[in-house]
Amino acid sequence: MNLIVAADKNWAIGYQNKLLVSIPADMKFFRQTTTGKVVVMGRKTLESFPNGLPLKKRTNIVLTANPACQVPDAVVVHSLEELLEELKKYDSEDIYAIGGESIYRQLLPYCRLAHVTKIHHAYRADTYFPNLDELPDWEIAGDSEEQTYFDLEYQFLLYHNKNPKQI
Questions:
Q1: Contact criterion met (CB below 8 Å) for 84 and 107
Q2: I need a labelling partner for 51 at 20 to 30 A (CA). Which of 18, 111, 135, 163 fits?
Q3: Is residue 166 part of a domain?
Q4: What would the pLDDT profile of 32-78 be if each residue is shown by its tens digit?
Q5: DSSP string, 106-149
């Protein structure tokens, strides 16, 4: 399994159920990376999408504790155990955790690769991603040149987990 996230320099990822910033190159990378794949998200992440609808051209899986939650064109699961069982149906390389904070924290041990758009700015935030630089099993396996969007500097980083748990 993989994950994909955009985080600021403090590993913040959101504020009031919205992304901190929308960088066109990051959005394009997200689309190119996840189209045709399986995306795993929480209910609040789903609700943050346009019209609260699943992403097109992807298999959408939503993890929510709400037993009444139903989402057209998505698979809804209600526990980590149920999610892991559902994910066995797919090639691990094709699965991407896409948020939010709770989903990332639960699935991080199972992820082999983390695609991180690291934004060199600190935003006001209420949602955070675990600091991969402080986790002993994670190491940077690749990085891009520093990019600029207006006056915002960022780069694409690829982290590798040396000991991912098996699904």
A1: no
A2: 111
A3: no
A4: 999 999 999 999 999 999 999 999 999 999 999 999 999 999 999 99
A5: HHGGG-SEEEEEEESS----SEE---GGG-TTEEEEEEPPPEEE
DSSP string, the chain: -EEEEEE-TT-EEEETTEES---HHHHHHHHHHHTTSEEEEEHHHHHHSGGGPPPTTSEEEEE-S-TT---TTSEEE-SHHHHHHHHTTS-GGGEEEEE-HHHHHHHGGG-SEEEEEEESS----SEE---GGG-TTEEEEEEPPPEEETTEEEEEEEEEESSPPP-
The total of structural domains in the chain comes to 1
Residue ranges making up the domain that contains 100: 2-161
Count of CB atoms situated within 10 Å of the CB of 54: 18
Strand 152-161, strand 147-149: pairing: antiparallel
- From CA 49, how far away is CA 72, in angstroms rounded? 14
Task: Note whether residue 73 is domain-resident.
Answer: yes
Q: What's the distance, CA 80 to chain centroid?
A: 16
Q: Are strands 95-99 and 38-42 parallel, antiparallel or unpaired?
A: parallel
Compute the half-sphere exposure of residue 4: CA atoms within 13 Å on the CB side of its CA. Answer: 21
